[in-house]
Model the fold of this input.
Amino acid sequence: MIIGHLPAGYLLASALDRSFFRDPVMFWAIMAGAVVPDLDMLWFHVVDGGAVHHHTYLTHDPTLWAAILFFGLVLTSRLLIGVALGALLHMVLDTIAGPVSWGWGDFSFSGPLVIVPPTQDHWVMSFVLHWIMLIELALWGIAGVVFVMRRKLEPME
Ligand SMILES: [Zn+2]
Done:
């Protein structure tokens, strides 16, 4: 997923914006967690020079985020819980068209669920022109509708 992580994080944060989860820290932590795993792109480009797929980095290991979620629950830290939930959502979305390793040994799955063939010179253009981009655009559209509806229900001060 290229552009869909932020609106997906917004949708998750909005859906959980009630009861225990209703907290600005939780809301923004989910939003941050939804995009923070891709900060490894800096390492990917600057240090590794694109030699290793960034999905193989620790930042794209669901186990890391599950462990952070566990510690967040133990410590009742809304910040940790939110970041972990957002990042786990990121892992799920990245699994659609990219390799993300879930589980261990015989009980592992590395995806992707959909293979985007290299139809263009640059991989980004192959993704942009693949039907999978419609999912990302739909996330933006739905998030936009939810954003407007939330503003109507809870006007900003
Ligand atoms: Zn990612």
Remarks:
- Residues 37-38, 60, 90, 94 surround zinc ion (CB under 6 Å).
